[in-house]
Specification:
The complex is a heterodimer of chains A (158) and B (527). Helix content of chain A is 70%, strand content 0%. The longest helix of chain A is centred in the N-terminal third of the chain and has 25 residues. Chain A is globular, with a radius of gyration of 18 Å. Chain A starts with a helix and ends with a helix. Chain B is an alpha/beta fold. In chain B, 50% of the residues lie in helices and 17% in strands. In chain B, the strands form three sheets. Chain B has a five-stranded antiparallel sheet, sandwiched between helices. Chain B has a five-stranded antiparallel sheet with strand order 7-6-10-9-8, sandwiched between helices. Chain B starts with a helix and ends in a 9-residue tail after the last strand. Classes of the chains: A mainly alpha (158), B alpha/beta (527).
Chain lengths: 158, 527
């Protein structure tokens, strides 16, 4: 166990997963941002959000995915971004389980708003991504862009 | 004895005294042994009436000096070895004069009849031989007594003269030795003066220039040159006196050096050693004069020197060469001291410069150390700040979440306002003309506004399915021919979307006047 904790490869794996998850969420958000109405229909299909919150959520949630994905990939407030992505994935898993248990005929709405139906395979895939997000939360420590700007010129003494 | 006989004896004695007085007079002024011998020989011949006489001085069985008076003298033959051997043994065996009769005198330069010999010590002897008398008679006993007396006189006089001559010789030797001592004292004084003059010199060049005229002056040389060649750095130092100025370059100096080295008996000249250069054939070495004395020396390793002198004004005196060599040797030692001092001074100067450089380096290092300390302090501050910031970055704060979500919301709302595919943020409102009913009135058209999938899972009896997404497509087919005054009841309220409100609004927009919505969805139809 100690060997697992002290292994030096965790940082590099976490960096790779970080970039992967960030890119994944950025890619997933682009279509939703461009077509928020279709995403709103997908949200409605889940029947989990009250009707008055659907439009704001359809507008804001893709941007949260985009911003969190960028921050995670670049290493800006990476831990908060990873927590947000993990939280989103957790919510997605719960929503999918909910619709699967209620046997609602809905699409996934994960990337494109049409085509991919919600399934247990989708749940498993999201669980894998959730695991990656948690790994990033625990082991991420390399290549954070914001560390280049940690100190102001005054603090550097220049 | 009668009176006549007494008178004759008295006259003879008087005659003998006269002879002795006359001989003493001559011997008294004699300054050499042969002069004494000659005076005694003449007195003996005159007193005894000898026809000839022979006097000789010898050592052992050899005759050193001899003189002869009268006729029948064969000086060129000399005494025979046999006669000398017999005579020397006889004389040297006696401490007193010996008078002997020789008879025919066989083996001697004269026909000697009588001989007087005197031992002079240290193997030397003196012999006085008399030939036959003029009247042909033999020598009487009293005449032999006179001859013995003359021998005693001769012995004393010879010893005195010899002692006097030895004294004069000793005096001459003492005088010569005194002169040599004076010269040596003079040379020692010259060496002392050389030492005094050169002891204060600190450069080989100046020691060379000052030493040469001193040596030339003391030993009477009219011309002289001296050159030092440092074969390590190629420097040439030269000085000359008494002739044309001689300033050799490196090549000329090397040529002179090797020419002198080839004339030295020893080719391996150790440092501070002086070798005499053989100049017997009076070579022309290109220094402006023909040298008579030359010395080659090595002051130190690779610092060679040559000193050449012309003819001495007073000529060479005994011991001058050794004194000159000693003087040159001392000069070389002073040159070595001056060179060593110059080397030490150069080293001191270099050391002082290095000390100054070291001091500057130490000062720079001290300043650098201060700067490094300040930089280290600053680095520690920066590292501390970096650690603080890194720790702050590594943890997720509430503000981070709020910031990310707030930024996303602002961007989302802003983009949605500009997006042609954007959505209305507020849910659709119910038009005022639309009534809310709890049940479906008789004769009313029932419209199910939910999506097709929900409709197919269950709907009110007689209901037609018109989802708002496909209203424009489905409406003409389902309700296009209906009277606008006919009552229409729309249902389809869900948790996430109020489909019935949207469809009722679209129906009102199409001109229908009796549109109502169903207030509550039947329980079995809720998703």
């Amino acid at each position: 166990m100690t060997l697992w904790r002290t292994w030096s490869g965790h940082g590099w794996i976490a960096l790779a997963l970080r970039v992967y998850l960030g890119g994944l969420f950025v890619a997933a958000s682009l279509h939703k941002i461009q077509f928020p109405a279709a995403f709103a229909d997908a949200l409605v299909d889940y029947q989990l959000v009250p009707y008055f919150l659907v439009p704001p959520l359809a507008v804001v949630l893709p941007w949260v995915e985009l911003v969190a994905g960028l921050c995670l990939a670049l290493g800006v407030r990476a831990k908060a971004a990873a927590w947000i992505i993990a939280g989103l994935l957790g919510v997605f898993v719960l929503a999918l389980v909910s619709v699967l248990l209620r046997e609602l005929p809905v699409g996934c709405g994960c990337f494109e708003t049409t085509g991919e139906p919600a399934s247990w395979r989708t749940v498993a895939r999201d669980l894998v991504w959730l695991g990656m997000a948690l790994y990033v939360i625990v082991y991420d420590r390399l290549a954070h862009v914001e560390r280049l700007f940690l100190l102001s010129p005054k603090e550097w003494g220049s | 004895m009668d009176a006549q006989s007494c008178l004759v004896e008295l006259n003879r004695s008087h005659f003998y005294l006269e002879i002795l007085r006359d001989m003493a007079t001559h011997v008294g002024v004699a300054r050499s042994p042969m002069a004494v011998m000659d005076a005694v020989l003449l007195s003996a011949m005159g007193g005894l009436g000898a026809s000839c006489g022979y006097a000789a001085l010898g050592r052992g069985e050899k005759v050193e000096e001899a003189t002869c008076r009268g006729g029948e003298c064969a000086m060129s033959q000399g005494p025979s070895p046999e006669a000398l051997a017999v005579w020397a043994a006889k004389v040297q065996a006696s401490p007193h004069p010996v008078v002997a009769s020789l008879g025919s005198g066989q083996g001697w330069p004269i026909p000697a009849h009588v001989v007087v010999g005197c031992p002079l010590g240290e193997g030397r002897w003196a012999a006085l031989l008399l030939g036959p008398r003029l009247d042909g008679s033999g020598y009487a006993d009293d005449e032999l007594g006179l001859l013995y007396t003359l021998g005693v006189f001769m012995l004393v006089s010879l010893r005195f003269v010899l002692a006097q001559m030895r004294e004069e010789m000793l005096a001459a030797k003492i005088l010569q030795r005194n002169e040599e001592l004076d010269r040596q004292v003079f040379h020692l004084l010259s060496q002392r003066e050389l030492a005094v003059e050169l002891s204060s010199e600190r450069q080989p060049q100046s020691a060379l220039a000052r030493g040469l005229p001193l040596i030339m002056g003391h030993f009477g040389y009219g011309q002289g040159v001296a050159v030092l060649v440092d074969r390590r750095c190629g420097e040439v130092m030269a000085t000359s006196r008494g002739g044309a100025a001689w300033e050799p370059d490196r090549k000329t100096a090397d040529a002179l050096l090797f020419a002198c080295l080839s004339r030295c008996a020893v080719k391996q000249v150790p440092p501070r050693h002086v070798e005499i250069v053989d100049l017997e054939d009076a070579p022309d070495l290109g220094i402006g004069f023909i040298p008579s004395q030359g010395f080659l020396f090595q002051v130190r390793e690779e610092l060679w020197g040559v000193a050449l002198f012309g003819e001495s004004v007073g000529g060479r005196t005994p011991g001058q060469d050794s004194s000159l060599a000693a003087c040159i040797q001392q000069w070389v030692l002073h040159l070595h001291s001056a060179d060593a001092f110059a080397t030490i001074m150069n080293l001191n100067a270099e050391l002082e410069e290095r000390n100054q450089q070291l001091a500057r380096t130490v000062e720079e290092l001290t300043q650098a150390q201060g700067r490094i300390a300040r930089l280290e302090s600053r680095v520690r501050q920066v590292l501390g700040a970096l650690e603080d910031k890194a720790w702050q970055v590594s943890r997720a704060r509430v503000w981070d979440f709020l910031g990310l979500i707030l930024v996303s919301a602002v961007l989302g709302f802003a983009f949605n306002g500009q997006n042609p595919h954007g959505v209305d943020l507020l849910p659709p409102s119910l038009p005022p003309s639309v009534a809310v009913v709890d049940g479906v009135p008789a004769g009313a058209v029932v419209v199910d506004a939910r999506p097709r999938a929900y409709f197919e899972r269950g709907h009110l009896p007689g209901a037609v399915n018109i989802p708002p997404q496909f209203f424009d497509l489905v409406y003409p087919m389902m309700l296009g021919s209906e009277d606008v005054e006919r009552r229409i009841v729309v249902y389809g309220d869900t948790w996430s979307r109020r489909y019935h409100v949207e469809v009722a609004r679209l129906l009102v927009d199409r001109g229908h006047e009796a549109v109502a919505i169903l207030g509550a969805m039947p329980q079995e139809m809720r998703p």
